[in-house]
């Protein structure tokens, strides 16, 4: 049961659907082969970040004297900043200018920062601390593998579609809509962290 709980928790934090939308915004002008390669690179990065968080996250927070509640608030602030940048059209998922070439400004950072955000890392650390204590965080690791695999399927399905250049208006609307979702998730993470902080005080 705890493995199912961990998987559902991480799926809600990584949000494969929104991750696929962000990936599509980044990759819409690239070839199918490039999309596939970039999807694999992004998945490896997400898996490594979350795996490290599960293995050493609790110990690192203890070393620096940082509580999970404060870390959750910090994660929320990062997501709010990302969402606000996307709403303004200055986020990493904006379309590169034609003069700059198709690969100019191309970065998977927005996707990795969303899927492996401080909010997601907080969830991983919480699972590792709650279910396994100081032992090997098997529950968190299994949840990570399953959640990242589901996200990988979503990214690869997106990558198999032919990239079609959309109109500037539709692209901007999509980017701002995703920014609103990221912004809302950031506020949710932050407010929950604040509530838990004062409840524990």
From TrEMBL:
A single cellular component GO annotation: plasma membrane
Pfam family, one: MarC
Keywords linked to the UniProt accession: Cell membrane, Membrane, Transmembrane, Transmembrane helix
InterPro entries according to UniProt: Multi_antbiot-R_MarC
Transmembrane segments: 6-24, 36-58, 64-87, 108-129, 135-157, 177-194
Membrane topology: Multi-pass membrane protein
Organism (species): Microbulbifer aggregans
Protein name, as recorded: UPF0056 membrane protein
Taxonomic superkingdom: Bacteria
Similarity-based family: Belongs to the UPF0056 (MarC) family.
Compartments, record wording: Cell membrane
Main location: membrane
């Amino acid at each position: 049961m705890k493995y199912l709980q961990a998987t559902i928790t991480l799926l809600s934090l990584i949000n494969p659907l929104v991750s696929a939308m962000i990936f599509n915004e980044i990759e819409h002008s690239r070839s199918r082969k490039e999309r596939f390669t970039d999807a694999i690179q992004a998945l490896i990065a997400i898996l490594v970040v979350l795996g490290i968080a599960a293995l050493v996250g609790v110990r690192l927070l203890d070393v620096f004297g940082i509580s999970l509640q404060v870390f959750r608030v910090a994660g929320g602030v990062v997501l709010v900043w990302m969402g606000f940048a996307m709403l303004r059209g200055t986020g990493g998922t904006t379309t590169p200018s034609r003069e700059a070439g198709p690969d100019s400004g191309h970065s998977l950072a927005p996707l990795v920062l969303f899927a492996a955000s401080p909010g997601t890392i907080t969830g991983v650390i919480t699972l590792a601390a709650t279910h396994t204590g100081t032992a090997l965080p098997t529950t968190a690791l299994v949840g990570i593998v399953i959640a990242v695999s589901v996200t990988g399927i979503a990214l690869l399905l997106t990558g198999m579609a032919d990239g079609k250049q959309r109109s500037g208006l539709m692209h901007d609307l999509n980017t701002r809509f995703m920014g609103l979702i990221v912004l809302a998730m950031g506020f949710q993470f932050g407010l929950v962290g604040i509530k838990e902080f004062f409840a524990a005080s």
